[in-house]
Each structure stands twice: as structure tokens, then as C-alpha cells.
Amino acid sequence: MIRVPLRPLARILTARQAGDNPDMIERENRRLRHEEMRDRGRMRAEGRLLFMGIAFFRLFTIIGVRLGILASTEPAEPRLALPGSEISANRADITDREGRVLATNLQTYALYAHPQDMIDPHHVATELAELFPELDAAALERRFTDGRKFMWIRKKLSPEQMQAVHDIGDPGLLFGPRQMRLYPNGHLASHILGGATFGAEGVASAEVIGMAGIEKFEDDRLRDPARPEPLALSIDMTLQQAVTDVLGAGMKMMNAKGAAAVLMDVHTGEVLSLVSLPDFDPNNRPAPILTGDPGDSPLFNRAVQGVYELGSTFKIFTAANAIQLGLVTPDTIIDGTAPLIWGKYRINEFQGHNYGIQTVSEVIERSSNVGTARIALEIGGERQKAFMRSLGLFDPSPVELVEAPGARPIVPPRWPDIVTITTSYGHGIAASPMNLAAAYAAIANGGTRVSPTLLRREGPVQGERVMSEGTARDAVNMLRRVVTNGSASFARIPGYPVGGKTGTADKPNPQGGYYKDRVVTSFASLFPTNDPKYVLVVTLDEPSDNTLSKPRRAAGWTAVPVAAEVIRRVVPLMGLRPVEAEDVSGDQLAADIE
Fold this sequence. Notes:
- This protein is α+β, with helices and mostly antiparallel strands.
- It has helices spanning 9-17, 22-72, 121-131, 137-144, 159-168, 190-193, 213-217, 219-223, 237-253, 315-324, 360-366, 369-379, 381-390, 417-424, 433-444, 469-485, 559-570, and strands spanning 94-95, 101-113, 151-157, 173-182, 195-201, 206-212, 231-232, 258-265, 271-277, 333-336, 340-342, 345-347, 356-359, 499-508, 514-527, 534-541.
- It has 17 helices and 16 strands.
- It is elongated.
């Protein structure tokens, strides 16, 4: 920039010749220079103000647009942003068929430590050991002082425990947020839900994964953020509670080591109640037992994992098979003279009975081993196998529990005539109570195969037809006679016609053969028989009714009274109206109860 001199020589000389004061020239030039500098400064300031105004206008415009977008979108929970792979802590709730919560999430905290930040490790270790008895003070102090910079102390804390740790007041103790799986009903439906645990973990988040039951079977669906809606089960918690209470009381009265019950809708296959006792609290799932019989663990689901010889409950399948093939009718005469000698084998009746000549209906009503064996020999092994397979008795239950695929029924590898005989009355073949309930549901619903499910379904499901409606109706009538005239007389419930079949099977001895004083008893029932809607299977492991001088272990004395009380308790809850009383005649003596 060229600066103009304040006192130009030419102008000063001219001013002096004219007699003017040269200083006025300097003052005038100084004034002009200051005015020019002021104009340049004003223009620069106006430019800056304009730039800042435009910048603020654009910024507030962006903020306003963003706020508008947020206001117009659906609300959503914020997600935690972490470096590396993201840990998803979201998990959908599980509800019963009426929307009542079975499993949900609870915000809690984990406790971890930065030992290098601790003021007094000895004091911290001592205080934590007092708060949490499972912790050892000496071990904690050793870990606090061995040079590590991070360590977990507890993965879950209650609010009270968190406050107590906070009161210790050491900066080396820190809390990390957690989504904890909560089962508000405690033990109820524990074998269905299974339980959950932590998977991938970080300081600020932890992944919740299923570890058993439907929590593990449906793990991917429950963790899918695109499907946040609750998983609705077929279970009705009111029925579940009623069945659990009655089965637990019956198990104690009958001195049984375990019990199971399955209540199923025969048209949809929905399991309305599934109970296995003893049970556990999924909020504090116990460790599996490593020695002894796995069936003794409370984690063992007897209704699905328990594969038992179910005894005479299989006899109705033999009768239905023969009727379906056109070999017999309910009134066909059968020679039930005992014993039946087949090669080196001797087939006897319960308590040494000899029923002689009888009809097919009487074979089922009296639970005749010999009569059932003769019907089975008419059917033949191949046709017997095909019929049982069609009922699902050779395959694991398809129910949505992670334990189910491993509970494969035990089927004889070879099928000679003696296997045909023993299988006809439920010996030498083993299945789960869930398998048995599905097979009885096929009889109850008019002859179509049922696929049991723990997920709520909308309306009936039409399965493969395994027998005609006429055969199914004949079978239902024969099962009703077992209650009115036969071994299940304790299942008579005024106003609610029940049909069913008892089964008493000796327990196999791991050393070979069978125990003489240990049995598994079952009662497979359907109701109401005038229009069957539900199937109930009750199984007791090693029951014994000791009310008299001689123990009574047969299903008629043990499983039937428990099942009858379950039905009495649940029918009002299910909205079933009583029907007119039926005539009952031809009752057997109590001594004949199997």
C-alpha cells in the first residue's frame, strides 16, 4: 500500500508563497487518512457480521429440521455405542396365553474393581466379604494387590447391595449397568422357561442368552431387535398354578420321588400346563448334578426328558389299531384265559387274575394283558409298528424345548412276536409323558395326529389322519368304561365324564431286570368324553400309598386320584359346563384297581 505523505513538499512550498499555514495541510491529510481507515474497518466489521449471521441462520435451520424429524418418528430406546462389536442387551418378554408376564428384563448393576485406584484394599476386601458371604476376604485382598488393573466381583447386585457397596466409599469400586432376566413367578413353569445367563459382557453392557427350556430354544427370536413384541406361550398360568399345587400335594401323599403332568388341547396341540416336580427357581438356577441318576436333579424335566415304560396306557393303541384294520369291533370275543404261554415266556394278569372269555371293550376295561396280547398277535408286528409310529411314539416330541430332541423313545431294535406282545401293553418300549399325551389327543380329537406346542396357536390345526372317526369314538367309549367300570374308578367326577387308562410299570434296574418294589404309574385321561377337548397325563415316579398296612403302588391307587383332583380343580377354570349324570354300573372291587 502506498502511503501519501502528510506534509507534501510541493503543497507546503505553494502554501508558504500564498501566505497560508502549512500545518493545515498536515491536519487535513491526517483527517482524510483517518476517514479512509474508519471506512475500511466498518466494511470489514459489516462483512464479519454478515458471515456470522448467515452461519447462525444455517446452524439453527439444521437444528430445527433435526428436531422436527425426531418429533415425527416413533420413540425408541437408545442403544449403547461401544467400540468394536456391539453387545445387544435387548431381549423380548415371554408371556402366557393371556398376556401375563412369565419372563422379563430388570435393570440392575454389576460390581467390578480398578484395584490401582483403591485407597485401602484390605478394608475393601473385609467389607465386601461381610456383604457377600461367598467371597473370601483374604483371596480378594490378594487379587486386589497382585498388580491387575481390572476384575469382576459380582455380576448382579440388588439395589440394597449396591447401596451397601456404595457406602464403602472406595473409588476403586465401580458399577456397570446390566439387563438382568427376571422370572416374577419363581418356581412356576420353571421347566418350560429354563432360565438365562450372561453371554458376551462389557463394563457398560451384557448380553442375555437362554441356557435351557424355551429361553434357549427361542433364543434367536427373543434376541432379535426386529421382533421386540413378547413371545406368547400356550401356557395358562392359572391352570399351571392349579396343576402344580395339586400335583405337588399328590406327590407328597403318594410318597413319590417325582411327578409330571401334561394338560393339552386335543384340537390345537397347545400345552396348557406342563409340570415337572421337583422343580427349581430360574432366577437362581442350580448347578447340574455330576454323579448319580440325572433324573434326580430338579433340572430334569420328567414330562419331556423322562422316557419311561408307561405300561397299560398303551393297551388302547392296540385295540384302536385292531378296530381300524377291521380285525375286531368293541364287542368281538377274545380268549383272555391266563396264563398265555409263548415259547419260553409266560404272560400273566395283574394280581393273578384269569378273565377268560371277554370282549375287546372288557379287555381294556379290565386291563387284560393276555387279551391285549392276543389282539396284538392278530395285528402283527409290522402293522403294530406302523400304527405306533403314526402316533409319534417312535420320535422325540417336537415341543419347543431344547431338551426335547434328546429324549428319544426307546424302541426295541428287533420286533419278534414276543416284542409284539409286550409292546401291546406298554412294556419293552419307553416314551415320555408328552409323547403319550399327543397320542391320546389323536384319539380324543377324532383320529388326527397332534403336534404338541408351547406356543400359542390361533384355532385348530389339521394333522395327518391316523384312524377313522369311528375308531376314535370306539376308543373313547372304551376309555370311558375304564373309569365307570374298571381300574380308574377314582376318576369319576360328577358332571364331568372322564375317560382314561391306567398304567403301572416296574422300573428297570440298571444292574439288569426290574425292581420288584419300584414302579412308574401313569393315568392318561381325556375329558369330557361326550365331546373331548382336553387330554391330561399324570405320571408318578416310585409312588407308594402307605395308608394301609400293605403299600399300594398301582396307578389306580396313586396316579388316578391325583389326576382326578387335577381335573376337578381345572374344569371350572376352563369354563367347562357340567353335563347330566351318567348311570354307573358294574364297578370292580377296589382290589382289582391296577
